[in-house]
Design goal:
heterodimer, A: about 400 residues, mainly alpha, Cytochrome Bc1 Complex, Chain D, domain 2, 2 domains, two-stranded antiparallel sheet, two-stranded antiparallel ribbon, 14 helices, B: about 525 residues, alpha/beta, Pectate Lyase C-like, twelve-stranded parallel beta sheet, eleven-stranded parallel beta sheet, 8 helices, 35 strands, disordered N terminus, disordered C terminus
Chain lengths: ~400, ~525
């Protein structure tokens, strides 16, 4: 219903609203506005410690260090940019076309469609809790959001724009020029790439999800989880399943590279992941361990989206070391030592899935702008699962 | 199991070995003194002094009430009932369950009557016997057997005390504290574990003493852990006796400041039955002490005998089997110190790679100590006592013992950050309340200004309301109960909310409410 409403707005919104767009002077939920106009994140996890500030441990463990301190105006400008198809080469795709709030900031597809329907070979990851991450992309090749976003922006198979086109379009838009001057008050009148990257990073780091039912349990409310979910938690952290060894609380990732031996879909060449990027043979087929927060919202799973459900993804880990790989690949890959044969029962897999569902929290979902400075319809092309839903609903009506 | 250990160095060794040996025999340069003379007498990390009980700062307080559990009852049910400070006494009987302790300060103690123990029985189907995440947990006097994962596993709990347990065949690890600070593991007996019987992972300030470990793949492993002492343990008939490792690919990247002293490490010649792909599957049978990539490991006063491969081996990531390389982990074992130990009859049946190295270096005797790879600033006190291989770069230790360092356990328990109620109230306000309430704007719930006007001098009333909200306004959705917050935190957040004059922006009602 909600989606239909958004779709409706997309066509009905009057374009002249663009002129009236102003930036919020308030911080997003979760953030305190400091006297020097910075948004500072607070969380109940701030009560706890973690060894060496790494943010890995158990229930009452502090989060990894975070990136905050952007101004409300920068965050809000980033939100406009994030949803604006102007950022793509042909004005059809926004960041949200592959990272949609209604799909856990992913796209619900195995692998995303880029400009002109171009196919890509790695899944669009969720953007929740980016503020705590230090490595970006599945193969961990970027160390900042600013570096990361240049990948999809300028890839001819993703958003397909160029730095020059981006600067030209934004600088020729009076509304954006004004908003950038508000968000970056001491800067030059000319919009720069660094300002664009900073604003989008500001918005991305405002996407915080730390109020799931799991979190209530972690902070001490014993009844926050059902018996089945607690059984799932105990399997999750047990050394039989070993999920928590890499998907370590409280962020449910240890941010390391792991070679787990997922195969590619038929006909697709093997993806060597971090092994190629870092020229490290022992990382061949290795990918960054993703956070599992809001994981129930971001099917399908793995770097190539081969698993349709959480159950299938969990099943992978109990099917045996290297079971999905051919002999040649098995020889070539140094599988992570935690990949083994835990022999989990079907009931245990269901309990694990039940536990993973307790990691869902989207209370701080930001609003999709009603209008954009570009005058383009917000989001642009919808991720296909949403577009499909719309079509079918539309037809029924 | 793999014998890739050292294989990398063989070819290089064959090429340069003869030349290098000739050089070495020809020179007689004075040996460098290595290490500060006062390394262990004024060790900043050493906290407990002689005469202090080792368990002074670890374990549960026992200040609460006692809950008794008898055969046929559930230990977990008792844990659920227990509050911090309570003692749970478990009487003899067989308990088939997984006990998880997500609370602080719980004392789980077995009662042994006329030789009858409380037995935790996993039947080869249950995953773990005891899981804890709380601080100040004591687990003692249990016989634990037939679990698939661990006997006792800790995740991030500080000040733990694990003692007097008898662990037999509990799967991957026996006792496995992970990511904790300040912990004591003493007087446990463990056997039949397919990885490390006692495995200390990513911890700080640890003491492991007077345990007996046998017939495991690894006896005691100190991994990615700092400030640890392993002493007075009986370690025999494992595949590898005592390991000090940096395992790559973990979020905590270092191991240093480890003392391995006064242990009996003998006959660790058990066939390796580690799981394929596990790191210990690469430990050759017959290895007494293995130091891999760990720094500042001091080995003193041990009796190391009858380990067929080698008494002590110091190695790096490149030379070890099954190890991935992690650019953020230093692969070399540096500042290793071998002080006085008693060693004999080790290395009588070395793996092929060591045999090859012996051949290259014209060593015929059985070897006690092998170093493979670069090891900077390492030392050996009296090399003449042992047959060594690859230790030519080792200097003489400038210190002769570790007596000045009694333990790295902390004099006081590792404490959580001391936060005031106001600070906690602020965390809860921004962390939770701002999802629905902003200062002077309607969001999902009413503006904070309106709440302030209603509850001005009545934070208790507000705290009660948020625990059990009732629908007050026709045009707003009903507030979900915040009873998962403790009463103290509810009052703290109510007080903060009534005092706050800050702003928070609201979510899009369209996204957060069903229209």
């Amino acid at each position: 219903m909600r989606i239909f409403f958004a779709f409706f707005c997309l066509f009905a919104w009057p374009l002249d609203l663009a002129a009236n767009i102003a930036l919020s002077d308030r911080c997003p939920p979760g953030f305190e506005l400091t006297p020097n106009n910075q948004c500072q994140l607070h969380s109940l996890y701030d009560q706890y410690n973690s060894l060496y500030g790494q943010g890995v441990g158990g229930l009452k463990t502090a989060l990894p260090s975070r990136r905050d301190g952007f101004s409300p105006q920068q965050i809000d400008l980033g939100r406009l940019l994030f949803f604006d198809p102007l950022l793509s080469g042909d004005n059809t795709l926004s960041c949200a076309s592959c990272h949609h709030p209604a799909l856990g900031f992913a796209d619900g597809r195995a692998t995303p469609l880029g400009i002109n329907g171009a196919s890509n070979h790695r899944a669009a990851p969720s953007l929740w809790n980016m503020a705590f991450l230090t490595r970006f992309f599945w193969d961990a090749r970027a160390t900042s959001l600013e570096a990361q976003m240049q990948g999809p922006l300028y890839s001819p198979r993703e958003m397909g724009t160029t730095p020059a086109a981006l600067l030209q379009k934004l600088n020729s838009n009076e509304s954006y020029k004004h908003l950038f001057s508000v968000a970056f008050p001491n800067a030059n009148q000319h919009i720069t790439l660094d300002q664009i990257y900073a604003a989008v990073a500001a918005f991305e780091t405002s996407l915080v999800s730390l109020n799931s039912r799991y979190d209530r349990y972690a902070h001490g409310h014993q009844d926050a989880l059902s018996d089945t979910e607690i059984a799932g938690l105990n399997i999750f952290r047990s050394f039989v399943a070993r999920c928590a060894e890499c998907h370590t609380p409280p962020l449910f990732t240890n941010q390391q590279i792991a070679v787990i031996g997922v195969a590619e879909p038929m006909g697709q060449s093997f993806d060597y992941g971090a092994g190629t990027i870092f020229n490290n043979p022992s990382w061949k087929g290795g990918f960054k361990v993703p956070s599992l927060r809001n994981i129930a919202r971001t099917a399908p799973y793995m770097h190539n989206g081969v698993f349709k459900s959480l159950k299938e993804a969990a099943q992978f880990y109990t099917n045996g070391r290297g079971h999905a790989l051919d002999t040649e690949r098995k020889k070539e890959l140094l599988l992570h030592w935690h990949i083994w044969e835990p022999n989990l029962t079907d009931e245990e897999l269901d309990q694990l899935v039940a536990f993973m569902h307790t990691l869902t929290d989207e209370q701080f979902t930001p609003p999709i702008p009603k209008a954009l400075p570009s005058g383009l319809p917000p989001i642009g092309v919808l991720p296909s699962p949403l577009a499909d839903t719309l079509t079918s609903k539309h037809l029924k009506n | 199991m793999s014998n890739k250990l050292f294989a990398v160095l063989i070819s290089a060794g064959l090429l340069v070995g003869g030349f290098w040996l000739g050089q070495h025999l020809a020179t007689n340069s004075p040996v460098a003194l290595v290490g500060d003379a006062d390394r262990y007498t004024s060790n900043a990390a050493a906290r407990i002094t002689a005469g202090t009980a080792l368990d002074a700062s670890v374990g549960a307080s026992g200040t609460g009430t006692t809950i008794d559990v008898f055969n046929g009852e559930s230990i977990q049910a008792a844990v659920k009932r227990a509050s911090s400070g309570d003692i749970i006494r478990v009487y003899p009987g067989t308990y088939q369950e997984t006990v998880y302790i997500d609370k602080d300060d719980i004392w789980l103690t077995g009662v042994i009557q006329r030789g009858h123990w409380p037995i935790l029985e996993g039947n080869h189907t249950l995953n773990d016997a005891i899981l804890y995440s709380g601080n100040n947990i004591t687990v003692e006097n249990f016989r634990i057997t037939h679990y698939k994962g661990n006997a006792i596993m800790g995740q991030a709990g500080n000040n733990f005390l694990i003692r007097n347990n008898h662990v037999i065949d509990t799967g991957v690890y026996g006792i496995f504290p992970q990511l904790g600070k300040n912990g004591l593991i003493e007087r446990n007996i463990l056997s039949g574990i397919e990885d490390a019987a006692i495995y200390v992972g990513m911890c700080d300030n640890i003491h492991v003493n007077n345990n007996e470990v046998f017939e495991n793949v690894a006896g005691i492993e100190i991994e990615n852990t700092r400030h640890a002492i392993v002493e007075n343990n009986k370690v025999y008939n494992n595949t590898g006796g005592i390991l000090a490792f940096i395992t790559p690919g973990l979020p905590i990247k270092t191991t240093y400041d480890v003392i391995i002293r006064n242990n009996f490490i003998s006959d660790n010649n058990h066939v390796n039955f580690g799981a394929p792909g596990s790191i210990v599957a690469g430990v050759p049978s017959g290895s007494g002490i293995v130091v891999m990539a760990a720094d500042q490991v001091t080995i003193e006063g041990n009796i190391i005998t009858n380990n067929k491969n080698v008494g002590i081996v110091i190695t790096d990531h490149q030379s070890f089997a099954n190890i991935s390389l992690d650019p953020e982990s230093d692969p070399n074992s540096d500042q290793v110190a071998i002080l006085n130990n008693v060693m004999f009859n080790n290395g009588y049946q070395p793996i092929n790679e060591i045999s090859a190295l012996k051949l290259v270096n014209l060593i015929k005797n059985d070897v006690d100590i092998v170093n493979v790879g670069t090891s900077a600033d390492s030392c050996i006190l009296d090399p003449g006592k042992y047959v060594t291989l690859g230790l030519d770069d080792y200097g003489r230790c400038n210190f002769s013992d570790t007596h000045g360092t009694v333990s790295y356990l902390l004099p006081e328990p590792a404490e959580p950050h001391p936060f005031t109620d106001t600070e906690k109230g602020k965390m809860a306000y921004y962390g939770i309340c701002t999802g629905c309430h902003a200062y002077n704007v309607r969001m999902i719930g009413p503006p904070v200004q309106i709440i302030q006007a209603l509850y001005m001098d009545n934070p208790e009333g507000l705290a009660d309301y948020i625990a059990k909200p009732i629908k007050k306004r026709e045009d707003y959705p009903e507030m979900p109960a915040q009873n998962y917050l403790s009463p103290e935190l509810r009052l703290a957040v109510a007080k903060f909310m009534l005092g706050v004059d800050n702003q928070g922006q609201f979510n899009d009602p369209a996204l957060n409410q069903n229209p």
